[in-house]
Amino acid sequence: MKPPEEQTMSSVFPRDTRINLPKAIRAEGCYIYDETGKAYFDGSGGAAVSCLGHGDPDIISAIEKQAKTLAFAHTGFFTSEHSEKLARLLADYTPGELNRIYFVSGGSEAIEAALKLARQYHVENGQPERRHLISRKQSYHGNTLGALGAGGNEMRRAQFQPLLIDVHHIAPCYEYILRDEIETSHDYGQRAAQELEDEILRLGPETVMAFIAEPVVGATLGAVTAVGGYFQRIRDICDTYGVILILDEVMCGMGRTGYLFACEADQVVPDIVCIAKGLGAGYQPIGAMICSEFIYDAIKTGSGIFQHGHTYLGHPVATAASYAVVNKIINQNMVHCCNRLGVFLSDALHDSFGQHPYIGDIRGRGLFLGLEIVSDRATKKPFDPELQVARKLKMAAFEAGLICYPMAGTRGGLLGDHILLAPPFIMQDSQISEITYKLEKALKSVLPA
Length: 449
Ligand code: PLP
Description:
This protein is an alpha/beta fold. Helix content is 38%, strand content 19%. The protein has helices at residues 4-7, 45-48, 57-69, 81-93, 107-124, 145-150, 154-157, 175-178, 185-203, 230-241, 263-266, 293-301, 316-331, 334-353, 389-399, 432-446; strands at residues 24-28, 31-34, 39-42, 98-104, 132-136, 167-170, 208-213, 216-217, 224-225, 244-249, 272-275, 287-292, 359-365, 368-373, 402-403, 405-411, 415-421. The longest helix is centred in the C-terminal third of the chain and has 20 residues, at 334-353. Pyridoxal-5'-phosphate is lined by residues 47, 106-108, 111, 140-142, 214, 218-219, 248, 250-251, 276.
């Protein structure tokens, strides 16, 4: 037994050892309360997780019921009721032939499964030389080694570089910074997509396994949508060269953008799509890798076994919670709500910050919105990273009672700052002004007068 003074010290290994966090003790609707009773408006749903807000009685009752009936049954021995029901429900709403659903415990696991499945598909299909993965700079696909390797955020990758798989990164579709003044949006999108074809040709088309991208780039770019036509051209290129298209909708999926699947807005159907976050809405840890029938068939008619797996695949309590979440999103028309509220929130952000000297761009889709912070709107020059604008904004907003998701490294991973907003779909119209008011307060306290 440790001495009493050590027993009272925290034994938790936190994300950041330099700060003391308040203790969250309860949550209800759009608010999380700490032990002093202070309320925080959950303006980012953590990190685009809590789409139904907190304390939803239907989800809680689904969890209770399932935990009492069957808390766990290993998927090597059994299937279970809610895995089946949830897979059926999702398959009914996925675009195209995305019909086979592999349940995991979060976003990174979904990405790992997608990467391995893309590789195994080619092996089973008699093309074992296909091994190269192409991804985009300034993307984020998770923190496990495969997912981190796929991601293109320099700061997150740097120290782990020697452990990462070799991935080839092309530029993102980031109109605010990368479109030439004389180019139309469409032409810019075609030029950005052309980078994929050029990279495939450089590597040798017969060696390329997959391309992975977020339809709306979340954490690392701040809700950046692609311009019209970009993803359609990406789809064409993948089809031409037999490259598997993986879309990472871990953050932007499940209604967040005003579409159940974010790729619907881009009018493309990937071969594999990954979802998580909003799938469990924070009530249970769950993610899913969803693949097209032709990929599943290749495994089924080949070895019959996907060489992958984790202990908690298709966890009964997680799938029961998620079934209740997805049912609610669909049956209560939450996707429409998200769209409607997204327009109001975007308008309010434009009204409040459209002329703000340090907000260069306001962007996003549905309730997935981003503000890019610049030191000069005309030149779009970012603030000096030494000033730690994103970190200070996070703290100032928190102090003001707003949880938002500021992040540094918008420009290439080292420079730039943005704020991501992803409030719950159950938010009331009247709460929009609470977000803009608290955000304004935070901006005022951090940025130069
Ligand atoms: N992919 C995207 C686009 C994400 O935003 C995230 C997490 O933020 C992940 C993957 C990883 O998900 P998780 O943190 O659940 O492992």
